[in-house]
Target: Triosephosphate isomerase
Amino acid sequence: MAIIASNFKTNHTRKSTAAFIEEVNTFLKEKNITNEVLVFPTATSLDSFNTVSNLTVGAQNAYATQKGSFTGEIGTEQLDEFNIKTILIGHSERRHILGESQEEIAKKFNFYKELGYTIVYCIGEPLEVKEQGIEQTLEYIYEQFVGIDTNYENLILAYEPVWAIGTGVTATNDDIKAVHSAIKEKISKPLLYGGSVKVANVHEICSLDGVDGALIGTASWLVEDFKQIIENTKDL
Model:
């Protein structure tokens, strides 16, 4: 069963998010699609959505706290209001643009693990590491597991090569298979691929050995495209 996830990043409003989720929900019901679908809206668009059991709304980010004095952050008090129990942790934009260290990421991971959240944990390498070859790539990726319990029961991994996110450059099938098979040998958890996944290539990517679904940015923000992506992977 494929897992298809949409990361809205800093896109959509409260109103357009509600319309998007309602439309995807109706689509899943009408088409009788059983694949797991995750949507990660902005924090301002979180709400109590009435969805089928295989459509889950999660948080893109939260602080490792229930509540407190952390300006600009949200904690479990805000997530609990909408019964949210799924979170994205370790996304490369949090690591590279917002400067989250592995130590901070591990702290956040362990906080939400203790609360039983489903954690979509992101890993991936920048271009200069990729160019050094597969061994260096894997070494870099494995450093992103420091402090992370890879046996955690509610863990989903997402491999997102940083050089392929939002660039239009997708990793080759061989690149994807090489990294996914190496990770799968060590960690037996669902492993999604992310990085310029779109309507045209999602079926091929999700059909590769070791790929259990996709974490999608840009190509998932238009609801028609996202529905087509779900349609294209429904038999996997």
Q: What stands out?
A: The longest helix spans residues 14-31.
